[in-house]
Write a structure and sequence with these properties.
Elements (H helix, E strand, L loop, with lengths): L2 H12 L7 E2 H8 L3 H11 L8 E2 L7 H14 L16 H11 L7
Parallel strand pairs: 1-2
């Protein structure tokens, strides 16, 4: 995996505000990578970032991490039902891109 792309994805995830979530595709659009790549980054490197703020387009996380995510959602006040995050909690691509452009620092090579 490209270290710069991984770092970009993780930094963008960290910009998702508390009580909000972003879809893998939204993170990917801002990071200039595919939703699958975002999922792979989150699976391999996401344990040290706010991983519970990244869900699929339907607002669902895999069953093996859903219960842990619910604890964070409850603490942050993220609106969710019994099996998914509600649409009102989603950050759209324009919002996330603006956060990235104003708060993100592009990693340097070398």
């Amino acid at each position: 995996m490209d270290e710069i792309a991984v770092e970009r994805v993780l930094r963008i995830v960290e910009l998702v505000p508390a009580a909000r979530v972003a879809a893998y595709g939204t993170v990917g659009a801002v990071a200039d990578c595919s939703p699958r790549y975002v999922g792979r980054v989150m699976r391999e490197f996401g344990s040290n970032v706010t991983w519970w703020r990244v869900v699929n387009a339907a607002g669902i996380l895999p069953p093996e991490i859903f219960a842990r995510a619910r604890i964070h959602w409850e603490d942050e006040g993220t609106p969710y039902s019994h099996d998914r995050v509600e649409r009102v909690a989603f950050v759209d691509v324009d919002e996330l891109d603006e956060l990235w452009r104003t708060h993100g620092i592009e990693p340097k090579c070398g």
